[in-house]
Amino acid sequence: MLAAYFGGGLFCGILFAAAAFSVIFFAVKRSRAAICAAGLLWGIAVMTGHLELYCKPITEFGGKTVRAEFIVSEVSVFSGGTKSYTVEMNLAGRKALVEIADSQRFEVGDRVTAVVELNAPDSDDMIQNLADGVLLSGEITELIAVKSESAGVSSVIRGLRGRMVEMISGNIFGKSGELALAMLLGEDSALSPVLREKLKICGAAHYTAVSGSHFALFAAVLLGALPEKRRHAKQAISLMFAPAAVIFFGASPSVLRASVMFLLYSLAPIFYRKADTLNSLCIAVAVIGTFSPNTILDTGFAMSVLGVFGAGVVGTEISKKLCMLLPDKAQKLSPVVTVLSVSVCASVCTSPISVFAFKGISLMSAVSSVILMPLMTVSVIFIIPLGITGMSLFALPVDLAMRASAAVVEFFGGIRGLWLTLDFGYAWVLAAGIALALSAAAFGDMKTLAFSGKCIVVLSAVTLFISLTVNQRRSEVRFVGNYSTGAAVIFEGSEAVVFISGSGTGLATSISRTMREHGAVKIACIAAFGADYSGALAIRELSEMVDIDTVYSNGAAQALLGELNVKTVPEGSRLSVSGITLAAAKPSDKVTSADIVLYNGRLTKEPESPAGYAIYFSSAEKEMPENWYNARRDRDFYIRLENGTKNISVIQ
């Protein structure tokens, strides 16, 4: 399915023909490999049909205004007084998910009739949009009618979730409260940018996405309350738990995958069959991929699938083999070996996706997962009675467990060197090679284990050597920003210099992410000559994520950044770094000159600039004149510098 999406017509046609031939060839030979070939054939057919028969007719509605009835399926958090909704409406006879921003107060399940102005789809964002199942966005121009959802089972289940959220918010505060909502209920929108970044660095971000571990823990608590004699009651509750959990946690791809697998595990004893992790995982992926092909492009879904494969399949087999190698006197260490093996295998098997999507991996993911899992287990045991009874007494153990979790995240997440940056070309191929070698070791004999171990060591050493070499020699400028403000991040080895044009509002997360993806662990200086109050807050937020030596800014920012080494500089100054000069200006400014000029504010007419590189953040489709670069359109655009001594000075 991935090949059908990314490969293009000719490649896809060749692959389809090869798969069809393989099905016939292996079927004649009565080989079980025919099933694999049939899966390849079916996957290409499903994705191609999805793109041509579903996506294409819907995206043709872009730029049109329609009168439609839709159902609100998801409500996102407030942003500037406006709510964002994901709604389900009929377009060309097909059910489509559309993102709508409006000041109206809808609830999940509301049936709305309105006139909606649909926007043209952004081709650059199509992968992410398709992964979310959303192909179009729009705005309501006329609201005609709203019918609220009648009370039902789904309302009761969502009410229970709302009660749990309320109980957590009312009894657990600060970082532990944020983690409780994210780790226990999947409410990752509650996380602050600082905590979100530290979760990535320590390798525990997957705990904020609902997956099989959430299902297993919640089901264990609910079923554990029933006596062993009530076997039929347990089976009935197990069968009801899967669809109820989808309503409770939301129908995200990873939740659907966990729900299908849990349902298969629950059905196995009824049909006197033994549940198998690999078979259940493959069936879940096949079912979801057939009925919702867009989920194949979802990063969370891919991480979830490979995580289960690594922990439940590869990790189980590897731990058995390693325990067999332990001497008799060391057999007591078998549980420790098993836990670590499962955690490491899950991290290795998800590493190709992590490298491809996030440009690196956390070196502490296995350890942090082992530490946080028992804390999460304790929290789940008490969060259910807390949500049902509302008794604050049950909040105490949850609070203590989440405080310990926050301490772990703060400690490991504060060491940015624990994130191994792998942003060089085809790094994900090396990561995939390591994962394949580990999988071969799991399914092979002891000789295969030894050979695979050598391959893993060699591939890991090559990966680490390339990463360290690339990071050490890095000397370049990359850009982040939005329509009103932007920043140039100048990399010199493991350090960075940040130059901010405009107010700097909301840039902390983007700057920290860019540094993490490209191997910088420290900021030598930030130059924010035009920062306002909110921009200064963003710099202070950034200082909680990254160590900052010096800040060059104005007097207004100095009052908020007293704990940092702030030097007051007049607005309009320029920054010189490694022999290049950087300046900030409005798009209408035709005088400001420097090697790099970052423009901020609204562009109203054809721009002119004497700069060597004129950088502006505009809509993705906006083309710029000669020597101007649209940093939103050319997302991989960067300027390579000559390696040399990093000299920093301010030119007033």
Note poorly predicted spans.
none
End-to-end gap: 56 Å
Structural class: alpha/beta
Apparent shape = globular
Strand order of the largest sheet: 13-12-11-10-9-8-19
Percent of residues in helices: 40-55%
Individual helix count: 20
Most strands sheet: 7 strands, mixed
Number of strands: 20
- Give the DSSP E fraction (strand runs of 2 or more residues): 15-25%
**What is the radius of gyration?**
27 Å
Mean pLDDT: 84
Give me the secondary-structure topology.
Blueprint: H1 2-6, H2 9-28, H3 33-59, E1 65-75, E2 83-91, E3 94-102, E4 111-118, H4 126-131, E5 134-147, H5 153-171, H6 174-185, H7 193-202, H8 212-224, H9 231-249, H10 253-267, H11 277-291, H12 299-325, H13 334-358, E6 360-362, H14 365-389, H15 395-413, E7 419-421, H16 427-443, H17 446-473, E8 475-481, E9 486-492, E10 495-501, H18 508-517, E11 522-528, H19 533-545, E12 547-553, H20 555-558, E13 566-568, E14 574-577, E15 580-585, E16 596-599, E17 613-616, E18 628-630, E19 638-640, E20 648-651
Parallel strand pairs: 3-5, 10-11, 11-12, 12-13, 15-16, 16-17, 17-18
Antiparallel strand pairs: 1-2, 1-4, 2-3, 4-5, 6-7, 8-9, 8-19, 9-10, 14-15, 14-20
Helix pairs in contact: 2-3, 5-6, 5-9, 5-14, 6-15, 7-15, 7-18, 7-19, 8-14, 9-10, 10-11, 11-12, 12-13, 12-16, 13-14, 13-16, 14-15, 16-17, 18-19
